[in-house]
Design a protein that fits this description.
With about 80 residues, this protein is of the alpha/beta class. It has one domain. Helix content is about 45%, strand content about 10%. The protein is globular and about 30 Å long. The mean pLDDT is about 80.
C-alpha cells in the first residue's frame, strides 16, 4: 500500500548526531519537494537565507509550537524539520 503525502504534512526528524537526519531531510527536499529547515544550521547562522519564509514563520510563532505547525501547514507544501 502506497501512502500519499498531503500538502499539509509536517515531519520532525530527531536523533543522535551523525544518524542521518540532515541527509534524509535533504533527500525529502530534493526528491519529494519538501520544504526543509535544518535547526542545527539555523542555530549556527548557516543556510537560513534560503529558507526565509520558514524562519519568518518560526519567529512569528515563538513560544507556540501548535501555532508554528499550523502556520507550516498553511504554506501548502509538505515540510520537514530536523
Amino acid at each position: 500500500m502506497k501512502s500519499k503525502i498531503s500538502k499539509s504534512t509536517v515531519i520532525h526528524i530527531s536523533g543522535i548526531p551523525g544518524c542521518g537526519k540532515t541527509t534524509y531531510g535533504r533527500w525529502l527536499e530534493e526528491e519529494k519537494n519538501f520544504l526543509h529547515l535544518d535547526f542545527d544550521k539555523l542555530f549556527h547562522g548557516q543556510g537560513a537565507d534560503t529558507k526565509v519564509a520558514l524562519v519568518q514563520i518560526l519567529q512569528s510563532t515563538v513560544g507556540s509550537p501548535k501555532s508554528f505547525i499550523r502556520a507550516l501547514r498553511k504554506t501548502g507544501q509538505p515540510t520537514v524539520l530536523d
